Amino acid sequence: MALTRRAVLKTFATAAAGTVTGLGAYGYLFERHELSVTRADLPVAGLPPALAGLRVGFLTDVHRSFWVSDRDVSSAVARLMSEHPDLIVLGGDYVTWGDRRYVQQSADALGPLSAPHGVFGILGNHDDDHDMPAALAGRGVQMLKDARTRLTIRGVPIDLVGIRFWTKRGNDIAAIARGANGFVILLAHDPRRLVEAAALKIPLVLSGHTHGGQVVLPVAGAIAAQKFPIVAGIGRRGSTTMFVSRGLGTVYVPVRINCPPEVAILTLQPV
User: In the CATH scheme, what architecture does the domain 34-270 have?
Assistant: First the structure.
């Protein structure tokens, strides 16, 4: 018996629905827990020679919640600490929608983080301005809330400039960075700040926020993150290098597809 067009389309629709269901189940049950360590060499313009080989640990978008457990966060912390970074940066979104139930739990799970040159954090769009930074500060994290701090590493001054997600205007970022005359690293949750950083000739930016797309489909790619200049990994604009992490947690749906969670070890290298 010859197949009708309607029967063929129904068969394809059924197969497609089964594929989507299977991917969703895999992304929920397995991939969102398949934490990896991303080790990347970052080529940075104007990097002082003494800083070549400096290793920065980067963990972002924890999203401690019903779906992201203490075990998930503790596993990420252990993996990061096993790499022995020189410096650790936390990139924001420690809970989801400022959920107060998990603020202290998130900070406590991140508490074991330590590095020879300190642990520094910024705020994301899901974080409140008071409870979350206070909880993290209580666990030894130096929070940069539209602020700048100076480190000296290997005899070289480094200015860490940390901005909130809501700080977007170039003039505002320039005001926070004003007076920085060491090697500047901008910590900005949103990778769209690459535009402002490049205009200010800031050599290095670390960002998260995108979750790497969280759901990356064959051919279509990371549909939910197409508005960002860099969805995940290393990118450049002018003399500015940016690294965007896929992060740890999930938001909206507890699923990752073709986009496993990560902690990153970033080794600075001269261009």
Answer: 4-Layer Sandwich (3.60)
